[in-house]
Write the structure tokens for this entry.
Amino acid sequence: MEIKKIAQLAYLLVDEKNFEKDLSAILSYVDKLKELDTSQVEETAYLFSFSDTLREDVEERKETKDVVDLMPKTQNNYLEVQEVFFEENE
């Protein structure tokens, strides 16, 4: 199945029991959206107003100890984070 390969390449853990059911539900929802008559709906470029969203860049310097103290997990003055890349042994 091509979808399974794509999920594996994207490092997604797929529950094969529910995957086909969930994918079918999503695709049927998309089919319902295709039934909508949008001929009278004016096209929009932006959904949100972006006025006054910029702020001045201000440099904030913190000591290393202050940053380490903010982290939930540390070890030997290093930040401890959850593993991001993994190899699945099959």
User: Anything to note?
Assistant: Residues 16-34 form the longest helix (19 residues). The first strand starts at residue 74 and ends at 75. The chain has a mean pLDDT of 79. The beta strands are 74-75, 78-79.
